[in-house]
Amino acid sequence: MLQKKEDLPIKAYLGSDALFKGSLTFEGTVQIDGKFEGKVNTKDTLVIGETGDMQADMEVGTLVCKGKLRGTVLASKKIEMHPASKITGNIQTPALSVELGAVLDGNLNMTGRTSEKIINLVKEAK
């Protein structure tokens, strides 16, 4: 079940006209509606808003994606992909919710085990 907006008290917010480059570590819920490049590390929730555009590698508890993300995601709890979202990159999570219209272009790992087939394909591509 998707969380409602009132369930996510936002601790920090990056507006749609903002650009942030660097490393972001936080507790609670953070929403990004602007552009972000770098790394994210939290045990809590990151929300990528509809105008959010991220190029990041991240370790999060929960990722709620409504915008665009390019990078690698390790989510310890879950990932929610809303209709206009697009994730390009590899993700690992025990739970994934994908609504109609969302796009995942990459590899999905839900067990935490490394696939020998994927490793062999990566070795062959080099």
Classify the secondary structure makeup into a structural class.
Answer: mainly beta
Largest sheet: 13 strands, parallel
Stretches with pLDDT under 50, minimum 5 residues:
1-6
Please give the share of residues in helix. Answer: under 10%
Q: Number of DSSP helices?
A: 1
Cα shape: globular
Element pattern in H and E: EEEEEEEEEEEEEH
Rg calculated over all Cα atoms: 14 Å
Query: Averaged pLDDT, please?
Result: 86
Structure, explained:
The model is unreliable at 1-6 (pLDDT under 50). The chain has one domain. Helices cover 8% and strands 52% of the residues. Strands 1, 2, 3, 4, 5, 6, 7, 8, 9, 10, 11, 12 and 13 form a 13-stranded parallel beta sheet that branches. The protein has one helix and 13 strands, in the order βββββββββββββα. The protein is globular. With 126 residues, the chain is mainly β. The protein starts with 9 loop residues before the first strand and ends with a helix. The protein has one helix at residues 116-125, and strands spanning 10-14, 19-25, 29-32, 35-41, 45-48, 53-65, 68-70, 73-81, 86-88, 91-92, 96-98, 103-105, 108-109.
Key terms for this structure?
globular; disordered N terminus; single chain; mainly beta; 126 residues
Protein topology:
Elements: E1 10-14, E2 19-25, E3 29-32, E4 35-41, E5 45-48, E6 53-65, E7 68-70, E8 73-81, E9 86-88, E10 91-92, E11 96-98, E12 103-105, E13 108-109, H1 116-125
Parallel strand pairs: 1-3, 2-4, 3-5, 4-6, 5-6, 6-7, 6-8, 7-9, 8-10, 8-11, 9-12, 10-13
Q: How would you briefly describe this protein structure?
A:
This protein is mainly beta and 126 residues long. Helices cover 8% and strands 52% of the residues.
